[in-house]
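batch_manifest entry 22 of 60
target: Sec-independent protein translocase protein TatA
source organism: marine sediment metagenome
requested by: lab member K.T.
priority: normal
notes from requester: please return tokens only, no post-processing; we will run our own comparison against the previous entry in this batch. if the run fails, retry once and flag.
--- input ---
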Amino acid sequence: MPLHGWEFLIIVVVVLIVFGVGKLPQTLGSLGKGVRSFRKASAGEDVDTESMESKSKKEEPAKEKDTAGEEKS
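--- output ---
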């Protein structure tokens, strides 16, 4: 059942009344972030493991310390 012109217009007016013009961009931005995170989560574990592997490769190795507790360069 597709939305026609008047139905869509009524939905837009109700959304504007409920959220207000000022908060609408913030609300839609939050909705977009939620949809993106849902898509990533529903894509499976592959996305998470790939991002974790790329982050671990970018980390710098830890600096060595000598026996006196001072950092070596």
